[in-house]
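[[Sequence with tokens]]
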Amino acid sequence: MRVGDAADKESAMAKLTTKKRKALKGKDFVFPKTRKFPIEDKAHARDALARAAHKGGAVEAKVRAAVKKKYPGIGKKKSGSAARRSTKKKR
């Protein structure tokens, strides 16, 4: 992995500035009262899932449910040849 690769991946998710975050509606957060875990787009929903996995328990379950409700396709396993290749045993 090159040094610039990590920065390129981070730039794929839109930067959420304080001004933009304050402008979001409550439905764009997993926890609207505390405005935690923004899921206004798929990139932020994936990020919320990753961050919630570190918290675990009820927080992770709530985030997973909210993301699944808003973006049903996120978090599902891929089907097809790519999924089969990743599960093959190496010899």
